[in-house]
Amino acid sequence: MSFVRVATVSEIPAGTMKHVEVGGKEICIANVSGKFYAINDRCGHENARLSRGSLINTIVTCPMHSSQFDITTGKLMSGPVLELAGIKEMFTGCPEKVKKAVEQMYEGIFEEQRLIKTYDQLVYDVKMDGSDVLVQI
Fold first, then answer.
1. Which of the 8 DSSP states describes residue 9?
2. Per-residue pLDDT tens digits for 51-83
3. Buried b vs exposed e over 23-42: b needs ≥16 C-beta within 10 Å?
4. CATH topology of domain 3-80+117-136
5. Residue 36 forms beta bridges with which residues?
6. Of 3, 7, 83, 85, which is the most exposed, with the fewest CB atoms less than 10 Å away?
């Protein structure tokens, strides 16, 4: 395994993340108060890009279902948020048959989503070389 240049410091301001692809891997590089971390960029729940989510301190939140991971360890901090809130209200003007069908469909989706296991994320070692950010792959 070797360190590979993936970005420069200026490309990833503090509090932000960047998606990179290197060595056949998709990696999320995060800058937490000037310290850089690298984590697998695909959520362990449904494969969404974590780099498109939010970063608060060392917690990255998936943009799809809000699973949260510690960017320093890759550990799952909280599982996906799966809600049907507001869906029924969107169909209030529809015939009862349509509302019932939509409700059943979303309940089925919710049940399937609930059964999907959310996995911890792989983390990568990061080091700096001048203004370059390097990740070990």
1. G
2. 999 999 999 999 988 889 999 999 999 887 766
3. eebebbbbbbeeebbbbbbb
4. Rieske Iron-sulfur Protein (2.102.10)
5. 31
6. 85
